[in-house]
Write a structure and sequence with these properties.
With about 300 residues, the chain is α/β, with parallel strands linked by helices. The protein has helices at about 35-40, 75-90, 145-155, 175, 185-200, 210-220, 250-275, 280-290; strands at about 25-30, 45-50, 55-60, 65-70, 95-105, 115-125, 140, 165-170, 205, 225-235. The protein contains 8 helices and 10 strands. The radius of gyration is 19 Å and the shape is globular.
């Protein structure tokens, strides 16, 4: 049986929630409509559209590459609606989707103002379980990780200093999972989050697991390669104190613009690599291999 998609569409053939018919194969996404509107500043031949549900779609070109930017809404439940529409509205044999998100630090050495490139997602959410159980891993596309590192370093970030690689915690509730001390179930939730931290989770966000799981689902249904990656701006320092998280110390606007530039640079580098051009990946991979163990970054006396 021919697979023709899972999404709802209107009589005119548009996606039900995004209200578009077609998207470009290089796609930046974020929960924030404002962040996606910012992408227009970096593109040529720009068109900006906002549907009735508030999702912003930006179409344009960057260095000759066709690029779209789409706001997905907050949380994995919203992402699990919008991402299928993105995937099904994009034509061609290769689709690259980069999430540009924000995250809260889970490690003392991952500070506000740093960037985190997730290698995998801890699926501490329920939405993606409608596709497959928690035993199935949610991993970033490995092909993209060294390219993301290279693009980040070209824009002033340094691996092991203010740029980090490692797992991300993905949740479906912001205030009670990332700050479990507020929950009546605090002991259970604190122990759970502490275990993820001990195993190396660097930050906590709300959507990336959906990207990984839907990529693997669709690659088994369509003759299309789908690459998914993520860049996260860390908006606060990790604190042991059980209070409210403060994010006002970080210049989020600057981080947003940095992430957009890194995302677009990643598309450019990936295109050059596909055309057989050397882009300097050896240096990025060498730095990844030379990274210290995370134990070396922890304060003395901390497990």
């Amino acid at each position: 049986m021919v697979f023709d998609g899972i999404t709802f569409s209107t009589k005119s053939g548009k996606m039900a929630h995004l209200e578009v018919e077609r998207l470009n194969p290089n796609i930046l996404t974020a929960g924030s409509p404002k962040r996606m509107r910012m992408v227009a500043d970096f593109l040529e031949d720009v068109e900006v559209f906002e549907g009735g549900r508030g999702h912003v779609v930006v179409n344009g070109a960057y260095n000759g590459l066709k690029v779209s930017a789409v706001s997905t809404g907050m949380g994995p439940a919203s992402a699990m609606i919008i991402l299928p529409e993105i995937i099904e509205a994009t034509k061609g044999d290769l689709l690259t989707i980069l999430r540009l998100g924000t995250a809260g630090s889970l490690q003392p050495y991952v500070r506000g103002g740093h960037l985190h490139i997730p290698t995998a997602s801890i699926r501490d959410e329920g939405s993606s379980q409608a596709v497959i159980g928690l035993e199935f891993p949610a991993t970033a596309s490995p092909e993209l990780i060294p390219i993301l590192v290279l693009a980040s370093e070209r824009h002033g970030y340094r691996l092991g200093e203010n740029l980090w690689l490692g797992p991300v915690h993905t949740k479906d509730n912001l205030y009670f999972r990332e700050t479990p001390h507020f929950s009546p179930r605090r002991e259970l939730l604190k122990q759970r989050l502490s275990a993820f931290r001990e195993m190396g989770a660097l930050s906590s966000e709300m959507e990336f697991s959906a990207y990984c799981i839907l990529r693997d689902y669709y690659e088994g249904k369509m003759e299309k390669r789908i690459l998914t990656g993520c860049i996260l701006a860390v908006v606060n320092d990790f604190e042991e104190a059980e209070g409210r998280i403060r994010i006002g110390e970080v210049d989020i606007s600057r981080l947003e613009r940095d992430m957009i530039k890194i995302g677009l640079e990643t598309f450019k580098l990936l295109n050059e690599l596909r055309r057989g051009k050397s882009i300097g990946l050896d240096e990025a991979i060498s730095k990844m291999i030379s990274m210290k163990s995370r134990r070396a970054f922890l304060p003395k006396g901390r497990a």
